[in-house]
Amino acid sequence: MAVEFDGGVVMGADSRTTTGSYIANRVSDKITELTDKIWICRSGSAADTQAISDYLKYYLAMHSVELNEEPLVRTAAALGQQMCYSNKNAVQAGLIVAGWDRAKGGQVYNIPLGGTLVRQPFSIGGSGSTYIYGYCDAHYKPGMSKEECLTFVHNSLALAMARDGSSGGVIRTVVITKDGIERNMVPGNRLPIFYEGP
Questions:
Q1: What is the residue-wise DSSP string for 23-71?
Q2: What's the rounded Cα separation, in Å, for the pair 59 and 161?
Q3: Rounded to the nearest 5 degrees, what angle is found at the Cα of 14, between the Cα atoms of 175 and 140?
Q4: E strands along 69-158, which residues?
Q5: Is the pTM of this model over 0.70?
Q6: How many whole angstroms separate alpha carbon 163 and alpha carbon 165?
Q7: What is the pLDDT tens value at each position of the chain, 198 positions in all?
């Protein structure tokens, strides 16, 4: 998931990768760097999203050399959308492209399965997202601070991880601002705890 705040974005993801009901990797990193200030959250087929991320990183590096400046977040999102839409029958990729640029500050773009492109103030995706739409709608507020966004991301992901068998592990976060990035991790034994039944 990713959330815009005044001055940047907060991105977050769990760390579980599954093959059917088998947990293939419990500490994977689903948040991938495309440029210094543009990152991507990946869900769906790990192989497909890793390949798309590698292409995006390559194209954006060439683009920044041509322009002699950092690419825009919208450009990265449009390239991702083009790849997903033109290959919608071959790839299974749900992406969230987010970052900070000189033109529009912090931005979040959602590219769900099928290759639509939508800018949103916050975006959720992946198998665990179906469990937390109500929570996110009820607790998102426009104009949240960085700390409020981090709390929102931690709580949302912890709830998804508690309900969804294909989500779990640790919470990884990336905060992107004009000054750079801050990466962090919340281990599984320090996740926010909510009602788990009697």
A1: EEESS---EEEEETTEEEEEEE-HHHHHHHHHHHHHHHHHHHHHHTSPP
A2: 33
A3: 60
A4: 93-101, 105-111, 118-119, 122-123
A5: yes
A6: 7
A7: 999 999 999 999 999 999 999 999 999 999 999 999 999 999 999 999 999 999 999 999 999 999 999 999 999 999 999 999 999 999 999 999 999 999 999 999 999 999 999 999 999 999 999 999 999 999 999 999 999 999 999 999 999 999 999 999 999 999 999 999 999 999 999 999 998 788
